[in-house]
Amino acid sequence: MITARAAATFEPVGRSVAAARTFVRDTLQGWGLTDIVDDAVVLTSELVTNAVVHAGTTADVACIRADTGVRVEVADRYPEREVPLQNNGGHHFGNPDREGGRGLLLCAALAGRWGVEYTATHKQVWFHLDFPDRPAGTRAAGPALPSSALPIADARVRVGVVQVDSSGLISAWNDDAQELFGYPSEQVIGKPLTDLAAWPHTPGTGTGVAEALLLSRWEGSYGIRGADGRVAPVYASHLRIRDAEGEPSTVCLLVRERERAVLQSPMRGANVDTADTSDRGQATDAFEVFIGSPAPDDLDGLLQRTVERARDMLDGDAAYLLLATDDETELEVRASTGLPSARQRFARVPVEAGTGRYGSARMPAVHEDLSAVPGAVPLLVNTGMRSVVTVPLKVEGRLTGSLGVAAESPARYSNEEALRLQFAADRIALAVERARLTELERLRRGSLSFLVEASDLLAGTLDRDQTLALMAQMTVPTLASWCAVYTVADQASEPELSYVLHEDEDRIDGLKALLMKIDPPEQVPTGGARSWSGPYDAAHAAALRTSLRSLSLGDSARPSSGPGASLATASAVGGETVVLPLVARNRVIGMLILGKPTDEHFRQENLELAEDLSRRAALALDNARLYSERTAISQSLQRSLLPPEQPEVPGVEVEVIYRAAGEGNEVGGDFYDLFPIRDGAYGFAIGDVCGTGPEAAAVTGLARHALRLLAREGFGGPAVLERLNAAILDEGARSRFLTLLYGELWPQHDGSAVLKVVCAGHPLPLRLRQDGSVEAAAEPQPLLGVMEDLELYEQTVTLAPGDVLLCVTDGVTERREGTRMLGDDGLIDVLTTCTGLTAGAVAARVLRAVERFAAEPPSDDMAILAMRVPEPADS
């Protein structure tokens, strides 16, 4: 004869196995069948694993209590699965580890009876566990223990029996109560128990003794103020009863706190063993009674277990748990069951102010019919739930969360269910807060690591486009599913869409096209994330228009693309979208847009991290802008210092190679020039200004323009340099000393070339003859910019056909690798290998030798000027 039945269905996911174990354990413990719980849980675990993990189908689990035992049935939707058959000679099942075999092998070993039943769509495995033989009236028993393992109590245990009527007044007080607390019965009868009870203000406690007296059963600790004024800690067991006339009252059994073992009920499912009594408090921990043991070690698992237990405890259709933000102004959905959790996860609602507020967060509340008060619980809007009970989670008086259980029918819950749920919330509040703080600490450590890495990456580039790309790549998919960056050129300009990124590359183009069609978000310089509905509204309007257009065309004229692209884009931007201002140096330079796909929300911690990132990214982006502007100005000025197009010199090959040291520099301290002076005469120069950068470039400009002007005025080489020396000294503190090789070149009718050169402190020019010999083509003289009175002279050099004149700056000869230096001798060795080469080939070979001399890039400016008189055969 069947006396009770319970059933549940579990989805084909891994966590369903644990949920099925919990369901069977709670069901059998609720029926008082603790003796067979372990065997039933083991067998159920194996059979449900076969269904949801191996077969990949839902599993229907039913517990049926009869007169002789319990039958558990597990059905799946995979009737084709193989059933291990017994051999004729015994009960051998083959390999116990093979898929599908071990569960039935365990059934044969543990169950009194078992079997497999098939239908066209289901396969059902069942097992029957017989009730154990035990003395009549025995419900539960523990093993015999040695005396040292028994709980400690006084020689005479006193159990105070106090009866409280329906008004909360004491109606009975026994002798043990008088002995424990010092009050004779006539002194306390007729007084409220609340006058004597010292209810503890422990973390998470939200219910007083008056409410506890209304519960059908309650156990716990509080204090009784004795006749001497002291509070005596007691452990109490309350039982709500009624007399023959139906009048309710509560019987309270009270013992000293240290003797709690006398009254304390054993933990459901806990095995009594020989553990030391010092561990009994932990073994009967109220949190584990509610949440189950072992408790999940992660916050999400703990919260999910909590909502499932709360739903089952109140026989609800759905349950949810919200955690408060640090300032307690909002609640964030962290776990739910029976609700569209993917849509609601991390959604936030205000606690007390504004529209859609969560007004019942700080106190227990019961809503008998949500249709009468729409929006009272924002989380349940449009979910079909009609009644709900909500209770706060509090730690040390601070709101840390809210727990709710809802049902699809109205008037499902009363104040009694609210008190029961509040007690459950009090049991778990501290554990949830500890787990939340642990997760928060882990997230903060990860956030710090993320920000450090992000700062390093952003500081590693001064390129604007690369900075934009880094901003997007650091947020997707770590913080958001998609990202867009708007930049603002100046205060009068409209924001410009500069970069778009989506975690699915196929959706980037559609997302970019959508954002280009809508107005950018308003520029707000205040910090913090704010919501933006523009992409969502535009995407869904476009998807609706596309769908209607495709339907109106009919099947014969349906466009090949269909509404898929629009719908995909709408889905991509259908979740929460937030705008973060990019503010640098008190100016809005752009906006960072972060978005989630359909019905998803941001975690508060991720938004705070995104705000930190946006501040760093804004400064990096502004630095890149300033650097780009400075580089553009610098390069524009530097280009003005470079000589115009190199003139063609009849009968002479000329090649110049110039390399300025330093990132972004086109002109440094080294310079060159080649220009016509008059018919048949050309001036050339190669020099080195002390230092590099803009200051050296300024002297470069002065020298180049002064040389051209003075030479064309008819001054000879020494006069040109002497006047240039005076001009440099006139610069005062801005002056730089200058080494300079200046010469004049006259191509001759016989194919040779005559040069008149002045070498003012510069590396000497080298002459390469056809026979491969190399010699200096000038003598050293004082450099410019140091002394006022210079006496310079020029020297004449004749280049025969095939000869080469090589002029370099000290960036070539002073090329270093550790303690080694290329030097004049090294340069001569390179030049001796250039016999017969053109001027361009000579210059290229010298440059290649300089670059190969050391692994590091050159640290000094370099200029190479090669002039060669070609042989008749060359021309």
TrEMBL record:
InterPro entries: Bact_Sigma-Reg, GAF, GAF-like_dom_sf, HATPase_C_sf, HATPase_dom, PAS, PAS-like_dom_sf, PAS_fold. GO terms for biological process: regulation of DNA-templated transcription. Gene3D superfamilies: 3.30.450.40, Histidine kinase-like ATPase, C-terminal domain, PAS domain, PPM-type phosphatase domain. One of its GO terms (molecular function) is phosphatase activity. SMART domains: GAF, PAS, PP2C_SIG. Residues 161-191 form the PAS domain. Keywords: Hydrolase. PANTHER family: STAGE II SPORULATION PROTEIN E (PTHR43156:SF2), STAGE II SPORULATION PROTEIN E-RELATED (PTHR43156). NCBIfam families: sensory_box. This is PAS domain-containing protein. It comes from Streptomyces violaceusniger.
